[in-house]
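Appendix B, Record 12. Input sequence as logged:
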Amino acid sequence: MIKNFISELESGNKNALYLRNIIEHLILKGDLSISDIAKEMDMSVPTITKLIGRLIDEGYVLDYGKQETSGGRRPNVYGLNPEACYFVGVDIRHFSIHIALANFKGEVIKTKRNIPFVLENTPQCLDQLCFIISSFIDKVSIAKEKIKNVAINISGRVNSESGYSYSFFYFDEKPMAQTIEEKLGYTVSIENDSRAMAYGEYMCDTNGEKNLLFINVSWGLGIGMILNGQLYYGKSGFSGEFGHYPAADNEILCHCGKKGCLETEASGQAIYRMMKDKIENGSSTSVEEKFRQNIVTMDDIVHAILHDDVLSIESMEHVGFYLGKHLAGLINIFNPELVVIGGDLSVVGDYLVLPIRSAIRKYSLNLVNKDTIVRATKLGDDVGIMGACMLARSKMLKLI
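Logged structural output:
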């Protein structure tokens, strides 16, 4: 039976911290020999051997046998036991939910995408969210007690440490995470969706970059930041509200209650508004009828862009260039190695990325941006659920 050394971390137990650090090295480096781990942690081989033995006894680590080498004695390698425990990642979109189950090695073993859902700030919507998660868990074929954390991504102001969401489901003094825990019967953590995406990209598909900006271009606009290899939260846990930077010289009222937010000119809702206004002024588009019936979705607009609809492409180019102009400012400030474009609208690829790059070249300092790579997420539509699953594991291990 797997013991839970995790509980010892709260007390600052030195051996528990060593065990946690070994697991972190196995997460980041993959399977390692005892001598490799000893070098990474600057500890003796006998000490590491003893600690690895405990992790094997508790079920978190497996001995994978001899490692293939070009010559000489082959050492045994050790790695995470994928069946030690499991995590559920939930990615809430404006019009749908993605949900996944990952094992201890971080491998996704079951997913359900595009579950119909409209994000609204109502108790009924929260109940529906809990029903969707519970239904998914009921259908997985693992022992339910092995699910150690359900991590939920949601847009807006989120304090992941306290479990409060201030933009959605803030109905009483009880944290959103606690409310859902009581409904599901599992440990629950919540995270801002853009930060979760940044973490998913960082953990799953980077080449060692330690400074990363992840731009979440969806119905709204957000940013997740990895600075010096650490997810950046800010003092109160509210970092990343890029969409509410006062950038636009307009009188458009943002949903936050203020005017002139960047989100009003550079987001999915901005494309929707621009296209709607132009249709009303006589422009034509392949999704005109859906606009007139008020049933158009972001997926419809993305489909139109990918099928050469001129009006939607022009609107996307405006959003991309406007966004790129203000990204240029962030590049000048942070000098990141990598800027990743993700979110619902990133699936259009170069229709969004190219105008962003063009504006960055025009408005940022050449000496600063010359070493910055700007690209779309390599994880595609799964970046959010991957981030949620990786965060669930890291929160259990108290790595963040």
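The first helix runs from residue 14 to 29.
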